[in-house]
Design goal:
globular; 2 domains; mainly alpha; 0% strand
Length: 479
């Protein structure tokens, strides 16, 4: 069920009062069992046969976690860790990458002059598989590293993996964050409840008013047969539109997921923090899809050696991590190129951007401010350009759009651009600038309650008056 549909509204309207009643009048274990059942039921709503995959992952990782904890032998502890990782990655690889692998095997054989027959399987991707497999793997890895202990019960672990707000598209919550919250019910305070409601409204506003109103324009631009006649200004207009669309779509989902968790007394980590004011590309990944970027940092980049090695190996680790991160998003060379671009951006950040700023930041206030503005602007330009490879349908299309963006200047009529889209971009960029210059880049929860109330009312009115005629599924559902 999609958060912004009537079906989900009815589902939550029925489930939430029952949750509150159970929480108040029944043992906590029954409340947790209720949450587990409705979470599994909501997943089965998409395509019930794939519920078996989710249950298999839950059973596998729970059993492996128990054996890793209790095994005295280092060899057996490693065996159960490998079993867990193999099961999760095997499922992910089969459902997400088997077709991609088959197609590229045929292409490689053809290039070498060989003729082979490899069956190309068309398999529907189980929704949320990239997220719940990563969540399960982090659990067994953390137990192996003795960072966390196993869940107190099988049902606690089942709830940790299947909890419906974050099951389909994150955040990727760690066991050490969520499992301790299941030990006993937390007190539902007024401010915590209000914050959850505010996040629900904010996420719905981002999705229905901004992302879905930008979607038709973005879809039209990326459906053009070629981009030879597209002016650079029009190309940048569309590229910026997608940058804003994917941010408001995905951060909107995260806001709603975190808000729903708040309403039930659970604290989830923040997943986005105004990424388009990032000071360099390292800072961008500290602000964008934070739960996933920290997952790759802790379970891939650091084990590769992180920044503990010499400069050359550190740069290698950055590029390898980002390429794998790109491939995680989908079985396509475009995602590999997107990851490679961000890897090169991080190398540029490491070798040039940060050293230059450190050298010149004490020259004067004006120089520091100007340099900060230039770095933040170039970071956004680089990120927006990289989104072209993320959104394009094929490599020639991405290259055609890139050519238009950077070379196709000349006479141009503003009437050719959908200038009304600026109101949607403007809302997002004003939010970013407000946090940067007025809040000193501090969390907006420093607002007073009247500000929350007024902004919530304005967003509700906007949702009622300006929501898109057609609403789409959240973009990250495909991953």
């Amino acid at each position: 069920m999609i958060f912004t549909t009537a079906e989900f509204a009815l589902f939550f309207a029925a489930a939430y009062p029952l949750f509150l009643l159970l929480r108040r009048y029944s043992p906590w274990r029954w409340t947790k069992l209720f949450l587990t059942v409705i979470s599994l039921a909501s997943y089965a709503f998409w395509y019930y046969p794939y519920l078996l995959i989710l249950v298999f992952v839950i059973v596998l990782d729970y059993c492996c976690g128990e054996r890793i904890q209790t095994s005295a032998s280092a060899r057996w502890r490693k065996f159960y860790l490998v079993l867990s990782l193999s099961g999760n990655l095997g499922l992910l690889g089969f459902y997400k990458y088997i077709g991609f692998l088959s197609e590229n095997t045929i292409s490689l054989a053809s290039f070498l002059g060989l003729s082979i027959e490899v069956p190309i399987l068309e398999i529907m991707l189980p929704i949320g598989i990239s997220f719940h497999t990563f969540q399960g793997m982090s659990y067994t890895i953390d137990i192996y590293r003795r960072i966390c202990k196993p869940a107190n019960s099988f049902w606690d672990f089942a709830l940790f993996v299947s909890f419906f707000p974050q099951l389909v598209a994150g955040p990727v919550v760690r066991a050490k964050t969520f499992l301790p919250q299941l030990a006993k019910p937390t007190r539902l305070t007024g401010p915590f409840f209000y914050w959850g409601c505010f996040l629900l409204i904010l996420g719905t506003f981002k999705k229905l008013v901004i992302a879905d109103n930008l979607a038709p324009y973005v879809d039209y631009f990326y459906s053009l047969p070629n981009y030879d006649g597209v002016h650079a200004f029009a190309a940048w207009s569309a590229v910026m539109a997608y940058a804003v669309q994917i941010y408001t779509d995905f951060s909107g989902y995260s806001d709603i997921a975190i808000g729903l968790a708040c309403l039930m007394g659970f604290r989830f980590p923040m997943n986005f923090y105004y990424p388009y004011i990032a000071f360099g590309f390292s800072d961008f990944w500290r602000r964008w899809h934070i739960s996933l970027s920290t997952w790759f940092r802790d379970y891939l980049y650091v084990p590769l050696g992180g920044s503990r090695l010499n400069n050359l190996l550190t740069l290698r680790n950055l590029i390898v991590t980002m390429i794998i991160g790109g491939l995680w998003h989908g079985a396509s060379w475009l995602f590999v190129l997107w990851g490679l671009l961000h890897g090169l951006f991080l190398v540029l950040d490491h070798l040039l951007i940060q050293p230059v700023f450190k050298q010149f930041r004490h020259r004067s206030f004006f120089v520091s401010l100007l340099l900060s503005f230039v770095i933040r602007t170039l970071t956004f330009v680089g990120v927006a350009w990289a989104w072209v490879f993320f959104r394009s349908q094929n490599i020639p299309q991405a290259l055609g759009i890139t050519k238009a963006m950077f070379t196709q200047f000349g006479e141009y009529s503003l009437a050719d651009t959908n200038l009304h889209l600026g109101q949607y971009w403007g809302i997002v960029f004003l939010m970013h600038l407000f946090v940067l210059y007025f809040m000193r880049d501090k969390l907006h929860r420093r607002f007073k309650r009247p500000v929350y109330f007024v902004s919530s009312v304005l967003m509700i009115v906007s949702i009622l008056l300006f929501r898109a005629a057609d609403s789409n599924a959240f973009i990250y559902f495909q991953f």
